[in-house]
Amino acid sequence: MSSLDPMSAMRHPMAPLTPTHFAWDTAHDGRVGIVTLNRPARKNPLTFEAYAELRDLFRALPYASDVRAIVLVGAENNFCSGGDVFEIIEPLTRMSVPELLAFTRMTGDLVKAMRGCPQPIIAAVDGVCAGAGAILAMASDMRIATAHARTAFLFTRVGLAGCDMGACALLPRLIGQGRAAELLYTGRSMDAAEGERWGFYNSIVERDALLADAVRRAGELANGPSFAHGMTKTMLQQEWSVSVEQAIEMEAQAQALCMGTRDFRRAFQAFAAKKPAVFEGD
Fold first, then answer.
1. Residues 6+ apart with CB under 8 A from 74
2. Domain 6-222 has CATH 3.40.140.10
3. pTM attached to this predicted model
4. Which tens digit of pLDDT belongs to each residue from 134-168?
5. Which CATH class is domain 226-272?
């Protein structure tokens, strides 16, 4: 692709990002982005500004020229305690309905941006994972946890519905309708073992290995066929709302596009030469 191509000009490196409301780092030569929610004194709650900046990050990721996978983690043995009680919850009690709707749409936009970006997202969960924090884990593509993880969709505990930020659509897909209903109605905490048994968590690892394990998994994805991974993520998202016949046709078109990539040709040539394939995402 020519450097003068307008689409090439739209792509840019994300490694130099300097966010204000969360920490950002990269690994695997810039192919893995690490988002750290870093307000540990209060168990890493979100603020209005953090929501918006996270939304903007995930909206920008489709145009990243370097980052191919994301790790989402919390600082100092907690993932995220949800919306900050004094910086979000208390102000919400004084807002008008139009203002509240603008807020709930903005938080929903974060989930849509996470689901819409082509990079696989791995949530590395330790300690408290509650409210909006549980939503962030849910909206990720994979979740690993420590035995200390406690996950709660606790919206009913503050008089709100469990249908927050896509929970009633996404959570049943992960763990089943009845189990999702129980968690969303009661707001109770789900421990790591139960979460793994129910399919919310892919695996449980030791606390001191959590971040390294997540980064390793993300690195394996990032060093794979990133265009094809993005297509898989898109199909996983879109095929819930179509018939099987439509899904098969969508996958036929998606796979044909992947077969047209140089990664596909590289993989064949590597196989024929009995060498490891090297994927470049094109």
1. 36, 37, 38, 40, 43, 44, 80, 125, 126, 127, 133
2. no
3. 0.94
4. 999 999 999 999 999 999 999 999 899 999 999 99
5. mainly alpha
